[in-house]
Write a structure and sequence with these properties.
- The protein has 361 residues and is an alpha/beta fold.
- It has 12 helices and 14 strands.
- The chain has helices at residues 14-32, 45-51, 57-64, 92-102, 126-129, 169-184, 200-213, 226-235, 247-261, 299-311, 316-331, 349-360; strands at 2-10, 35-40, 68-73, 107-113, 134-140, 150-155, 158-163, 189-194, 220-225, 242-245, 268-272, 278-282, 334-335, 345-346.
- It has a 10-stranded mixed beta sheet, sandwiched between helices.
- Helix 1 crosses helix 10.
- The longest helix is centred in the first third of the chain and has 19 residues, at 14-32.
- The mean pLDDT is 97.
- Bound molecules: 3-isopropylmalic acid (IPM) and magnesium ion.
Length: 361
């Protein structure tokens, strides 16, 4: 089959890691008889440098016309990069928020998995990490505080800033349905995370999630307050299967969960709309400090490409081949700098891509 993929190499290590993901996708295409057509678009700082804005209308149209989008990372050093002297709506991150909204990518899937081969990198005590963990954070991505009305005003000489947290029941329902659907394919447990002891938006969240749960009698639902969830993630991460939560809580909890795995360079993510279309990107950032040095870990991007094959193209066998290649390369002892440990062989970004692609063939 033929697939059209819009690529966003982006900033920092983005271009290097996307190049390796393409290498692996090309190996998949050869082996399974597919054709992958790539079109690059600019986003973030790369787009600011050329167009003065972090995302152009034209780039959005190119993304929309593809079957899926594969992204590296965007953004720079917030203290030194000139991009951060621009107005907030012209900074690199504004491009990411704009594309999420323009493509209606309301469901953000962020797996946090403790890899057996990398268990040593887990910062938790062994008595906790020994149980292993494998959770999927389902973060609502186009609502809440991120997209509510905001302004900064001055009243009687006092500066005041306002951000608005809004959710309507339809926004909650559609992400809850995705969450339960995904739980059904996993260990059938949803932990819905909110702040229902304080926020109205959370109380509505809880009600709507319960309504959705009624159609999934085979899936266990529990509610957890967000502060407790932050604690439970380090105390007993094995208890979680699917964590279902709103935009801001999901932003924070997914960073915590990825840190707990000890190997953020390994974590993929998918942002989906209500069709098969999605944007796939590593969970980590653009790491400007190591950009261009061929030391970044491309695995999170490669695994994001695998999620793309699975969720957008229905190519489960091909996705399995990528996931197995990652396992095989780790088992053979190859490591990039971020996951290096004693007795392993250190490789760069390109060589890691080569090793993965070789194992597909
Ligand atoms: C993420 C990032 C973004 C977010 C930033 C870059 C706007 O932290 O994808 O988690 O907060 O959503
Ligand atoms: Mg974040």
């Amino acid at each position: 089959m033929e697939f059209r993929i819009t690529c966003i190499p982006g900033d920092g290590i983005g271009p290097e890691i996307v190049a390796e993901a393409k290498k692996v996708l090309d190996a998949v295409a050869v082996k399974y008889g597919h054709v992958m057509r790539y079109t690059d678009i600019l986003m973030g700082g790369a787009s600011i440098d050329v167009h003065g804005v972090p995302l152009t209308e034209e780039a959005v149209e190119t993304a929309k016309s593809a079957d899926a989008v594969l992204m590296g990372s965007i953004g720079g050093d917030t203290t030194t990069s000139p991009w951060y002297k621009l107005a907030p709506n012209l900074r690199p991150e504004a491009g990411l928020l704009a594309i999420r909204k323009a493509l209606n990518l309301f469901a953000n899937l962020r797996p946090a998995v403790l890899y057996e081969e990398l268990a040593g990198a887990c910062p938790l005590k062994e008595e906790i990490s020994a149980a292993g963990f494998d959770m999927m954070i389902m973060r609502e991505l186009t609502g809440g505080l991120y997209f509510g009305e905001r302004k900064t005003v001055e009243e009687n000489g006092v500066r005041k800033a306002i951000d608005t947290l809004t959710y309507d029941e339809n926004e909650i329902r559609r992400i809850a349905i995705k969450g339960f659907d995904i739980a059904r394919k996993r260990r059938k447990k949803v932990t819905s995370v909110d702040k229902a002891n304080v926020l109205d938006s959370s109380r509505l969240w809880r009600k709507v999630v319960e309504e959705v749960a009624a159609a999934y009698p085979d899936v266990t639902l529990e509610h957890m307050l967000v502060d407790n969830c932050a604690m439970q993630l380090v105390k007993d991460p094995a208890q979680f299967d699917v964590i279902l939560t709103e935009n801001m809580f999901g932003d924070i909890l997914s960073d915590e969960a990825s840190m707990v795995t000890g190997s953020i360079g390994m974590l993929a993510s998918a942002s989906l709309n209500d069709t098969k279309f999605g944007l796939y990107e590593p969970s980590h950032g653009s790491a400007p400090d190591i950009a261009g040095k061929d030391i970044a870990n491309p695995i999170a991007t490669v695994l994001s490409a695998s999620m793309m094959l699975r969720y957008s193209f229905d190519l489960d066998q091909e996705a399995d081949a990528i996931d197995s290649a990652v396992k095989a390369v780790l088992q053979a002892g190859y490591r990039t700098a971020d996951i290096m440990s004693e007795g392993c062989v250190r490789v760069g970004c390109k060589q890691m891509g080569d090793l993965l692609a070789e194992r597909i063939k």
